[in-house]
Please model this.
Amino acid sequence: MPSSRILLAVTGASGAIYADRAVKIIRSSGNDFFLLTTAAARKVISLELGNDALGSWERQASAVFTEHDIDACVASGSCPVTGMLVAPSSLDTAMALASGLASNLVQRAGQVMLKERRPLVLVLRESPLASIHLRRLAELSESGAVIMPASPFFYHSPVTIGELVDGLVARALRMTGLDVPVPEWQGPE
Ligand SMILES: Cc1cc2nc3c(=O)[nH]c(=O)nc-3n(C[C@H](O)[C@H](O)[C@H](O)COP(=O)(O)O)c2cc1C
Model:
């Protein structure tokens, strides 16, 4: 029995590498995941990571869904996922969640997290943000979601892009409730 299972939703923002590293960290920490992608995500994944990435994630997932699978288990609060990570999150999906919409499975599963008071973490990739987006993101945050801009940190001295991304993804995963190692700031030398 895995220690925790989360729903990893990948949407059509740039930054498919965030999902790639999330899969690696989830699996290497002995946890488990359901994978959910949107049509836009599948295009961006292929553009940014090539044609093999999605298949590799799917083989490691306990279940695989697309945005059309509105009857999937994660559409219900009875489904035993401990939290949901949207990485990368498009603005489109974030705005839909902020508006309470549930027009596809990503949106429905996100609304389930909010109503069930379970962790919903969005690694949002967009910059700059318009005032309308900032207002809606504040509302989404007040509803319980964690808005985590795809804005990596540098205090662990990352050398590769993978290391840079890992720091942020590990913190996002920890916020979904997974027990994963995170680079810790040790204070000044
Ligand atoms: C190559 C590419 C990169 C994109 N990058 C972003 C991005 O960084 N942030 C964003 O909010 N949307 C981005 N988009 C637009 C989204 O894919 C688009 O809004 C889509 O409707 C999102 O749908 P989804 O949320 O269902 O995945 C990008 C689109 C493409 C084709």
Remarks:
- Residues 11-14, 38, 40-41, 43-44, 47, 90-93, 125-126 surround flavin mononucleotide (CB under 6 Å).
